[in-house]
Write the structure tokens for this entry.
Amino acid sequence: MRIAVLGLGTVGRQVVEVLDLERALFAARLGEEIEVSHILVRDPGKPRPESVRSRITYDPRDVLEDPSVEVIVELMGGFEPAHSYIAEAMRRGKSVVTANKEVIARSGPELSRGGTPRADLLFEAAVAGGIPIIRSLQESLAGNRLHGIYGIVNGTTNFILTRMHEDCVSFETALQEAKERGYAEADPSDDLDAVDAARKISILASLAFGGWVDVDAVGRIGIRNITAADVREAKSLGAVIKLVARAESTPEGLALGVSPTLIPKNHPLADVGGAQNAVYVRGEPIGQLLFEGPGAGGPATSSAVIGDLLDAARARRVGGRSVALPLEPAPLLPPEAHSHAYYLRLLVREEAGALAAVAQAFAHAGVSLRSVHQPPSGDAEAMISLVTRPTSRQQLERAREMLRGEHAVLREESCILAEMEAEAKTGA
Ligand SMILES: NC(=O)c1ccc[n+]([C@@H]2O[C@H](COP(=O)([O-])OP(=O)(O)OC[C@H]3O[C@@H](n4cnc5c(N)ncnc54)[C@H](OP(=O)(O)O)[C@@H]3O)[C@@H](O)[C@H]2O)c1
């Protein structure tokens, strides 16, 4: 079977290398050899290893218009032209394997609808790298009613938060270190602002809850405002701060969001450190499950890509399977109706009555407080950190509005979620 790989970067290089090296093994598993006949790249000026040179092309038509190429492995990244190449390949009856979460989150259903019946679209590597979560949700867990999915699905931010937590380094130092180690890109905005995690949870939620989730419906709070002071306060509360992507089933619809979240130290996600990824699933009858593993990097991602490739190849010979993406939109709970406990850190004037003024603002907004902490300060400014009881977003916003009008309050420095599983606690 002839296949083509689009992109020869971190993941593409590894995929081609493993396919070349393990040709005999995969032939035994599949009953047929897989030959990488074309490799599409962009830059003619880049040196390429001798082993791939004869297969390199810069013209996508060489791949898309060759009827002998049965499967396309898209590893270029970005929305266009990857999206157009995938659509064109599928219209021509080729199956597609991709690691591109941007394309799947924005256009997955449209792409799977547009292909011929033989054209499969597989994307295990698009979420959580080497962790086999897509196939697990689609197949192994299909007999469950799922209640919630909670993911640490962005290795860059998890690395940064882990460094801040373990060695009390600043956000800036941890980010710099992530760049030096190759965990963060030159422009890490998609990671830091939770865009990447939002794409991934929209894909997981679409598979788990049976309705398409538009990525723009996922509320996002990134990690740029998290400081060493927040990490210290989290520790004093017996918690760690992680960027958690959440999808919870409620009777009124799906509650979705990505936010830095205080996780109690005894929760299974609390120990997921460094650039690791993890997905925690709650459902019935399974109870709880934790998937953990490397979420990025050539080796981990190529494991998922090649698994999909063998699947797609097998389906073309013995009859198909495809990841069925739902076409109808999922009913969503509006963000203002989400109920959560929140952690806030405020900078206040060091004066008598500041704490009382803060407490009063929350009381007037109808928000109860679970804990309040004001460390001693010798300065004109002091810090107050507090955790609310579960409250609606509307009530929280009312309290924040009132705080902004308080003379004693200089500014709010952080506002993030203070609990992992809202629905579990409310019993829904
Ligand atoms: N890296 C990871 O750890 C990881 C993990 C999970 C998922 N992914 C996903 O995997 C995909 C690939 O990531 P990567 O890190 O391997 O990317 P990368 O290192 O930046 O490599 C991209 C490759 O695609 C080629 N390319 C880009 N635009 C092209 C175009 N218009 N026409 C032809 N070739 C083009 C580049 O060609 P040149 O060589 O000529 O520049 C390069 O070989 C992305 O969707 C990414 O989100 C990556």
In short: The pocket of NAP is lined by residues 7-12, 40-43, 46, 75-77, 81, 99-100, 125, 129, 296-297, 301 (CB under 6 Å).
